[in-house]
Amino acid sequence: MNFILDILKEILFFFNEVSIYLLFGFFMAGVLHVLFPESIIRRHLGQNTFGSVIKSTLVGIPLPLCSCGVVPVAASMRNNGASKGSSISFLIATPQVGADSFLLTFSLLGWIFSLFRIVASLITAMAAGILVNIISRKDVSQSYGPSPNNTSSETFKDRLKSFFSYIEYELLGSIANTLVIAIIVAGIIGAVIPDEFFGRYMDYPFFSMVVMLGVGIPMYVCAAASTPIAASLIIKGMSPGAALVFLLTGPATNAITISTVIKTLGKKSAVVYLASISIISLALGYLLNLVVAKYGFHKIIITHQAEMLPEWLKFSGVVILSSMLAWYYLKTKVLIRAERKSEMRDNKIRLDVEGMTCMHCAGSVKKAVGSINGTSDIIVDLDNKCVEFEIIDPVNVENVKSAITSAGYNLIS
Asked: Which pLDDT tens digit goes with each residue over 130-152?
């Protein structure tokens, strides 16, 4: 019984520490969504130059896209003419750190680690993008068909009106499951693993970094969800460098991302992509360990910045985030299914969509279908990987399919 109570205390501790910062991050991400739509991003990243790589990296870092949600966006960028290098740098920079995960890192690991994480993401993404552009200059650029006709673009007013729904469903929905699991895992680590465990049994910093590289590459975990796990590992004695390796590789690499890189950018780009992340993350992890050891930053890293906030504000964050999670699960698991059953009609068209893995994906597909004039009653079923809608002119169904494909998703015949 005491063991379970210890785990619950650790879970509540981490949830209390991250809630208010995560909410701040969501708000900032929502503002970025309103000011910078994906259409602008795609339009400015098409040239095969170093400048396009720098732009895609700087644009990608603050964007709140998780490691699965960024895949179709990067594929769509490539389909709309973005260079291989800018696509790769966007694919690396965006999931590694965003507004929400930066504030979580600041809360749990301090400002030194937060800044190092951003700089590391910049270096990794730019290096990989530049290398891919160099090796692919002789490749013939793939041409793509024009966007479907009869589309209506999402206006600033539309994005502003959807500000809160975007935060609730696309942002929170994209990380809800992994965030809950990560906080539980962090709580278990905090309760089960003895203090200084990693310092005692993995007293070789470079070896621990290699281990975390092997753990992080295949694992599917978003930047926000990986942060509490990294913080709990550091508290238990793991070196900051090893934790940084995990935070750089976990969000940016997984089976889905790697297969997408191979499919859309080629095997050479995939090799550069993995090699860049692996080598640079190990080098920067080693550098972080040296900096921490030389300047005595270890105490700053393990001191929780949330302690600077008043208790009432942290408690408010816990209440609001808990309410948002409860409403999200109620809405997606109960109410949407009931709505779908009540609106099933014989004239409704269903398309099976491959590649939808999170609420950001569902939102992107819904926007793609809604961009075709005459569509209505659009319902995206994430569990069954399909979208259902009504349309005035059946001829426009082909335009709907083209819009979904242009958004970076594939249709299952």
From this structure: 988 888 765 544 433 334 444 44
Q: What is the DSSP letter of 169?
A: I
Q: Say if pTM beats, i.e. exceeds, 0.90.
A: no
pLDDT at 158: 79
| Residue 396 backbone phi and psi in degrees, to 5 | -75, 0
**Structural domains of the chain, with CATH:** 2-319 (no CATH), 345-412 (3.30.70.100)
Q: Can you read off the two tokens belonging to residue 309?
A: 């906030």
Tens-digit pLDDT profile for residues 184-237:
988 888 888 876 666 666 667 788 899 899 888 887 778 888 888 888 888 888
Query: 369-401 burial by CB neighbour count: b if 16+ within 10 A, else e?
Result: bbbbeebeebbbbbeebbbbbebeeeebeebbb
In angstroms, the first-to-last Cα distance of the chain is 53
The rounded distance, in Å, linking the Cα atoms of 129 and 84 is 7
Please give the structure tokens belonging to residue 21. 């910062």
Residues sharing a CB contact under 8 Å with residue 50, sequence separation 6 or more, in sequence order: 130, 133
Q: What is the CA radius of gyration of the chain?
A: 22
**Alpha helices (runs of H) in 236-358, residue ranges in sequence order:** 240-252, 255-265, 267-295, 298-302, 311-330, 336-342
Q: How far apart are CA 331 and CA 114, in angstroms?
A: 34
Cα–Cα distance for residue pair 99/118, rounded to 1 Å: 10
